């Protein structure tokens, strides 16, 4: 059976291409659909169906554009109510793609319309399951997203539905089925996903905490909700775009590819409420950047951080990009629904500097210099890594303010003395520094190389101590 996983690492997202005898199906496509069309063309195949496992929260699906360009039919599982024409399948309904069959298995819990697709090959053998966000490798989908759309769907109620779906619909299936999930490690749609992107169902029954055979529903709900963090703020907006529809990707690209001279760029920034988003490497941003611009580098976890920190998908954005990567940046923004790019700085930051425009810099020191200063500055060190990273090990006496909560803790940063900011490797600390500077807080110093470099010095560190070991 031909099943190709198309994995996009920056979003930890997996789409699927299935082809048989001149017909193809795409499951959970990304926003830009031309690669799927070209893939089908290479097999001389016509895309017949676009299957959606659910209304996605972490990205905007390409189903509408793909339908417009290929004539393929969109298929959702039971209870889905999109605002456009689509097939709303029944539980156990079978669709044919060439000599293959795709069976609908309604598996509510992550969301109410969540659906798993059972893949059956040309010989009638069950080959695998495309599970969406119902079942990941090492984890299951978070049950708190649909409540942002329907308030009567509490996370406890959804977790109970998910328990039933897993026990009654997924676990009775054959152990040798291949599990094809929608996400891998790094996605915010779960909390403990593996770096592996496929596995057998039998192995998952052995190692996935959520599939323990002796687990009660109450135990499942408690474990699933334990440690679950608030989802990124842009998630509900992406859900609504996937339900209601959106502007075509081609139109977004056309209107966003607007090169601006330094003077025109400055005028646009002053005349609109646009955020200036600088996506160059952090080392370039440190050396020089447009005042009050926000740094989120294209070569890091770009789109999820944009969604988590800018949040409003309708926010106007002006871009400072590495030369030649403008299309890539606009594309990656559109994947998470940020379609309101109004232009980019033509020639990148060099043209701004060459034109004699005002610019700012960021003070950054090495880990060795940080270690030399530590005895005098140990009370003004801020760690912006995730909770788990900080708990595992951190600089002694450092304060913890996770990057995704930074905007809620601005008052905690000192105004009357310099302070130091670090993350794990230097990417997130520069994001944090840029946000602080944009809010008028300039007395900060970045630690280059982050905790990875700090660990190589003699700075005292605090290791995590499990509460159960405390006397």
UniProtKB/TrEMBL annotation:
Organism, as annotated: Lacinutrix iliipiscaria
Gene3D superfamilies (UniProt xref): Rhodanese-like domain, Ribonuclease Z/Hydroxyacylglutathione hydrolase-like
Name of the protein in its database record: Rhodanese-like domain-containing protein
Residues annotated as transmembrane: none
Keywords, in A-Z order: Metal-binding
The keyword Metal-binding belongs to this UniProt entry's keyword annotation: yes
Pfam families named among the record's database cross-references: Lactamase_B, Rhodanese
Metal-binding keyword on record: yes
Domain Rhodanese residues, every copy: 270-361, 380-463
SMART domains: Lactamase_B, RHOD
PANTHER family, per the entry: PERSULFIDE DIOXYGENASE ETHE1 (PTHR43084), PERSULFIDE DIOXYGENASE ETHE1, MITOCHONDRIAL (PTHR43084:SF1)
């Amino acid at each position: 059976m031909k099943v190709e996983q198309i994995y996009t690492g920056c979003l930890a997202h997996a789409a699927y291409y299935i082809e048989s005898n001149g017909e193809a199906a795409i499951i959970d496509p990304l926003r830009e659909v031309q690669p799927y069309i070209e893939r089908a063309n290479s097999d001389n195949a016509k895309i017949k169906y676009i299957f959606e496992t659910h209304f996605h929260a972490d990205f905007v699906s390409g189903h509408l554009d793909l339908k417009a360009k290929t004539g393929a039919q969109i298929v959702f599982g039971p209870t889905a109510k999109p605002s456009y024409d689509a097939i709303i399948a029944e539980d156990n309904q079978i669709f044919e793609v060439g000599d293959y069959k795709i069976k609908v298995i309604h598996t509510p819990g992550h969301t109410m319309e969540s659906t798993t697709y059972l893949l059956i090959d040309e010989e009638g053998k069950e080959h695998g399951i495309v599970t969406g966000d119902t079942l990941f490798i090492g984890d299951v989908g978070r049950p708190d997203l649909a409540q942002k759309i329907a308030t009567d769907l509490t996370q406890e109620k959804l977790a109970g539905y998910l328990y039933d779906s897993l026990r009654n619909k997924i676990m009775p299936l054959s152990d040798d089925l291949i599990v094809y999930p929608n996400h891998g490690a790094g996605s915010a749609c779960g909390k403990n996903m593996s770096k592996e992107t496929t596995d057998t169902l039998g192995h998952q029954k052995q190692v996935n905490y959520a599939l323990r055979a002796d687990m009660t529903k109450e135990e499942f709900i408690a474990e699933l909700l334990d440690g679950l963090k608030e989802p990124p703020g842009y998630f509900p907006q992406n859900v609504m775009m996937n339900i209601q529809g959106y502007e075509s990707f081609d139109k977004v690209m056309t209107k966003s590819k607007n090169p601006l001279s330094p003077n025109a760029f400055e005028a646009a920034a002053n005349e609109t409420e646009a955020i200036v988003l600088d996506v160059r490497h952090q080392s370039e941003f440190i050396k020089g950047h447009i005042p009050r611009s926000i740094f989120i580098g294209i070569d890091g976890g770009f789109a999820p951080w944009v969604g988590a920190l800018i949040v409003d998908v309708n926010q106007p954005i002006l871009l400072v990009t590495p030369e030649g990567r403008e299309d890539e940046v606009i594309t990656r923004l559109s994947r998470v629904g940020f379609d309101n790019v109004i232009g980019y700085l033509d020639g990148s930051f060099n043209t701004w500097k060459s034109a004699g425009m005002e610019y700012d810099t960021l003070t950054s020191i090495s880990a060795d210099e940080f270690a030399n200063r530590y005895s005098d500055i140990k009370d003004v060190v801020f760690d912006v890594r995730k909770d788990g990273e900080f708990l595992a090990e951190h600089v002694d006496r450092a304060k913890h303010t996770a990057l995704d909560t930074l905007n809620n803790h601005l008052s905690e940063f000192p105004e009357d003395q310099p302070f130091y900011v670090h993350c794990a490797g230097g990417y997130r600390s520069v994001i944090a520094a840029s946000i602080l500077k944009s809010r008028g807080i300039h007395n900060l110093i970045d630690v280059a190389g982050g905790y990875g470099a700090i660990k190589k010095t003699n700075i005292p560190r605090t290791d995590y101590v499990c509460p159960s070991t405390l006397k």
